[in-house]
Write a structure and sequence with these properties.
The complex is a heterodimer of chains A (159) and B (806). Chain A is an alpha+beta fold. In chain A, 33% of the residues lie in helices and 9% in strands. Chain A is built from five helices and five strands. In chain B, helix 10 runs parallel beside helix 18, helix 14 packs parallel to helix 15 and helix 17 packs across helix 18. The chains are: A alpha+beta (159), B alpha+beta (806). At the A-B interface, helix 1, helix 2, helix 3, helix 4 and helix 5 of A face helix 2 and helix 17 of B.
């Protein structure tokens, strides 16, 4: 498979979950495990243009796939992706545990809808749980990133 | 521009000190997936542990057969109580003075209790083998209702202590009784009730819930046989306490134990205590000589480590007919589960539940709490609150509403009439606390004005009439809550954990170039300590926050501290930080006086420098003084610029707030929409408004979860039916309301920077506010108290019981 733009070849047991393959064989510890049952989304990665909860598919199912994790978001020169910047600017994270999955989900959401409404954002990240922020600033962070990616100034919605 | 041309205000802004919305330092690594959490720790030769757990809530263990498990390729060992007993490690002490089983010996006392620990080369193999441990059980009768625990014919749960008449907190009344704790003047309270014009009485139950951080509890233990040293990485909110406890239990000298709390993925009280997984991983590492990782899965987390609440509070208020409260009685049954593993300061078996008089001027009160055992998981942690404070706030805030209803008064007006007045501070409550500062009436009035309270009540009246006419199927509810928290445990005179006073600490070192490392005894789990402690130091010492590194969580380097929970980091370690900084500043002043050849008293502080009074062109900046501290100190002075403070707080701090919530309840579906939630918090001096707001958003969301859906529920056989995210309500972005935040600022008079702590306030105030809103919707139909959680089904059932579906 291709992971963050690099070709990866490795052996995996048939029952190895993609999340364990990424974390333990490839040492990509950005994606996290929060529930084991597909509810929390901390393990979300981008796979062939879809958000995938990597605790719910086997590594072998990703054979030949193009996978992107949080580690592949910043530019090669270290410049943060608009979403990474937005999460920091808008205080869209606290403990940071849900953040890699949340950003990867938001990344795909913004590919699907370039200027989502607040409702679309909330629906779009409903599969990713956060226990710290209450989501309000995550919504703002995604709006910030959408504005930046669309090249328009970010207007914070009036409270 | 250089230092010569910048104004004081510009120089202050450059520091990024207290009061500014400094962006978080932590985020740089977190947004790139470069946080370092326990499960990211990977050591050569590392093994994995997994538990075999009891399917029964109460059963005798007839036989454990590990043969098949041991035969699985990759399994190195299987531990059972029989292996731990010779080491006296089959039980461990709890913070509450009880013991808890590490691995069940003769019987199991709750579903999913740990029975055997499998150690294998791979986490999948460990899980396979755990399933192959064969245990023969004989079922026993189960207690899930705490009110039945002390019945004459109740099944005996704790055979290990059945003959123990005295518990850690006095006499036990029954073999399933843990403690009785009383406070207040019973006779005077009874007399107040005899004289009262109006009284109310209600059983107010706060359901069992779970803090449920997104990262579960986990650890990696690594024992070095050659050095005789143990290193443990773990999700510990209180790493130093864990080191001390590990030393006392294992007999490994404390200096040979290294406890490291790396980044923690949320705690909310779940990660305060010690759990069997930690002990087993340590023993397994000692036995195998290899590092052993234990990672809890979500079902294990929800069903075994650290529940919260399960408090059942018989509550009575006495009042005059014109609405002055005259007395409060609360008699509580507390379900502690199978072992009393409550995480409270050791002398407080019911935590600080005696804050239950709330924000009101009760002349007398009496509280009694009975703790009982049941066939449920042990715990009793403070889920995003100080010890039992959210139980107390829920209790008094519901009861105040019920009394207002009986008096026919508006709940806000009734509160206004009884709030402690500004001039009464410092205020000594009927149950013994000294509230440090407050301006309650101003806060409540500000909240009422902000939401247009009077207009909302008019709208509600019109909606009720429309509902009666059959024109709408929605009920509007307005919830009011005014809470006072008690945080920052605490003063050594009354707060300790296993005999260690609940001080906390900060150590600050200024390097020659003026950059800084500060180490603290607390441990962030998302609160942003690396950002905020640096802001305190920046302001106190006039050094730029970006040049200050804050470290926590490594017991080898950080000064001893009691950890982060009960909103104690800012009240205690924040104070220690300011005190240590001031020690450094005092020394820097002497160095400045020496360099400027003036007397110490001829200098004054100006943002980032000492200058000569009346001659501001003559000054030395802190950066210059840092350099001088290493080469030009006055004769007789030691070089260097560092200080440590162990801060023993003189009192707790008492943050408070006024919350108002508006809901619309669909009586046909039970769906409750939160139309508006306004939260005014007063946490004293505000260090970082951005982080405060974030903490409040998060706390309100957890409060929303608790009030509107969370419950750790057991069926009659003691099966836990809510142990996954399928069944345990976790608010998503879709259900979570939008929050409006506001503040007043009443500094704590006894805290060096006037800060009070904030992280838990929104949970303490939020839960009763939601509950009061739902209750308010139904009260005109004669309903007085509806129990939490207010999920759709229960709310629909309330409407059904009120005959609204006919």
């Amino acid at each position: 498979m291709t992971v963050n733009g690099e070709a990866v070849e490795a052996l995996a047991e048939p029952r190895t979950l993609l999340i364990h393959f990424l974390r333990e064989q490839l040492n990509l510890t950005g994606p996290h495990i929060g529930c084991d049952t597909s509810h929390c989304g901390a393990c979300t990665v981008d796979l062939d243009g879809k958000s995938v909860k990597s605790c719910t598919i086997f590594a072998v199912q990703a054979n030949g796939a193009d996978v992107r994790t949080i580690e592949g978001m910043a530019a090669a020169d270290g410049t943060l992706h608009a979403l990474q910047e937005g999460f920091r600017e808008m205080h869209g994270l606290q403990c940071g545990f849900c953040t890699p999955g949340m950003i990867m989900r938001a990344y795909r959401l913004l590919q699907e809808i370039s200027s989502p409404t607040e409702d679309e954002i909330r629906q779009g990240i409903a599969g990713n749980l956060c226990r710290c922020t209450g989501y309000q600033n995550i919504v703002k962070a995604i709006q910030y990133a959408a504005a930046k990616m669309n090249g328009v100034p970010f207007q914070e919605a009036a409270e | 521009m250089n230092d010569q041309t910048l104004t004081s205000a510009q120089r202050a802004e450059r520091l990024q000190g207290m009061g500014c919305k400094r962006k978080r330092v932590e985020d740089i690594r977190f947004v790139q997936g470069k946080g370092s959490y326990v499960d990211d720790v990977k050591l050569p030769g590392m093994l994995y542990g997994d538990f075999n757990r009891s399917p029964h809530a109460h059963a005798r263990i007839k036989k454990i057969d590990t043969t098949k498990a041991k035969a699985v390729p990759g399994v190195l060992a299987v531990l059972t109580a029989a292996d731990l007993k010779p080491l006296s490690l089959h039980y461990m002490p709890t913070l509450a003075g009880d013991v808890a089983a590490v691995l069940a010996e003769d019987k199991v006392l709750y579903q999913n209790q740990e029975v055997a620990f499998v150690i294998a080369t791979d986490r999948y193999v460990a899980a396979d083998a755990a399933d192959l441990v064969e245990v023969e059980y004989e079922g026993l009768p189960v207690i899930v209702d705490p009110f039945k625990a002390m019945a004459a014919d109740a099944p005996l749960l704790r055979e290990d202590i059945k003959d123990k008449k005295d518990g850690a907190h006095g006499q036990r009344k029954h073999y399933n009784h843990i403690f009785n704790w009383q406070i207040g003047d019973k006779d005077a309270t009874d007399a107040a009730f005899r004289k009262a014009d109006v009284t109310i009485k209600e059983l107010i139950s706060y359901q069992r819930v779970h803090p449920c951080p997104l990262e579960t509890c986990q650890c990696v233990a690594s024992f070095d046989k050659i050095k005789g040293e143990l290193t443990v990485w773990g999700t510990f909110q209180a790493p130093h306490v864990i080191r001390t406890v590990a030393s006392l239990i294992s007999k490994i000298p404390e200096h040979k134990i290294h406890v490291i709390s790396p980044d923690i993925g949320g705690g909310f009280g779940n990660k305060v205590g010690a759990y069997p997984g930690y002990i087993c991983a340590i023993v397994a590492s000692i036995v195998t000589g290899r590092p052993v990782k234990w990672v809890e899965d979500r079902i294990e987390n929800l069903s075994t480590t650290a529940f919260a609440r399960d408090y059942h509070m018989n509550t009575e208020i006495a009042a005059t007919k014109d609405g002055k409260v005259t007395g409060l009685r609360v008699y509580t049954i507390a379900d502690h589960g199978a072992f009393d593993a409550c995480a409270d300061p050791s002398k407080w078996p019911a935590g600080f539940f005696n804050i239950v008089t709330g924000s009101y001027d009760f002349p007398v009160a009496h509280v009694s709490v009975d703790g009982v055992y049941s066939n449920k998981a042990p715990g009793g942690v403070a889920y995003r609150c100080s010890f039992r404070v959210t139980e107390a706030a829920y209790c008094i805030e519901r009861a105040m509403d019920i009394m207002a209803q009986k008096l026919g008064m508006d709940p806000a007006e009734f509160r206004m009439k009884n709030l402690i007045r500004r001039e009464q501070f410092p205020y000594t409550s009927a149950l013994g606390w000294e509230y440090d500062s407050g301006d309650y009436h101003v806060a409540l009035q500000k909240a009422m004005d902000a939401v247009g309270y009077a207009k909302l009540r008019i709208e509600q009246k019109a909606k009720r009439e429309a509902f009666r006419r059959g024109e709408t199927r929605e009920l509007m509810g307005i919830g009011v809550a005014f809470f006072t928290e008690i945080v920052g445990a605490g003063p050594s005179r009354n707060c300790d954990i296993l005999g260690i006073a609940m001080f906390d600490s900060a150590e600050i070192r200024i390097h020659p170039t003026g950059s800084v490392i500060a180490r603290l005894g607390t441990k962030s789990q998302g609160q942003g300590h690396e950002t905020t402690y640096a802001q305190i130091i920046a302001t106190e010492l006039g050094l730029v926050a970006d040049n200050i590194t804050v470290e926590e969580g490594n017991t080898d380097t950080a000064p001893y501290g009691l950890g982060t929970y009960g909103s104690r980091s800012t009240p205690v370690s924040g104070a220690a930080t300011a005190v240590a900084a001031r020690k450094i500043k005092a020394k820097a002043q002497m160095i400045a006086a020496h360099l400027l050849e003036v007397h110490d008293d001829d200098l004054e502080w100006d943002v980032d420098r000492f200058r000569v009074k009346g001659n501001p062109e003559r000054f030395k900046t802190m950066t210059e003084l840092a350099w001088a501290a290493y080469n030009k100190v006055p004769p007789g002075m030691e070089p260097g610029l560092e200080a440590v403070s162990y801060y023993d707080p003189p009192n707790m701090t008492y943050p408070f707030g006024a919350y108002i919530c508006v809901v619309d309840v669909d009586v046909d579906t039970g769906v409750t929409k939160v139309r508006r939630f306004y939260a005014l918090d007063d946490c004293g001096t505000r260090i970082n408004p951005m982080i405060i707001e974030g903490q409040i958003h998060g706390g309100l969301t957890e409060a929303f979860g608790i009030a509107m859906g969370q419950e750790i529920h057991y069926d009659d056989d003691g099966n836990v039916t809510t142990a996954s995210f399928m069944d345990y309500f976790m608010p998503t972005a879709v259900e979570t309301p939008k929050w409006e935040t506001d503040w007043t600022t009443t500094p704590s008079p006894h805290h060096p920077i006037g800060a009070k702590g904030v992280g838990e306030s929104p949970n303490v105030g939020g839960v009763p506010c939601f509950a009061n809103a739902v209750n308010d919707a139904f009260k005109f139909l004669g309903s007085t108290h509806i129990a939490m959680p207010h999920d759709h089904w229960r709310t629909w059932a309330v409407a059904e019981s009120l005959g609204l579906h006919q």
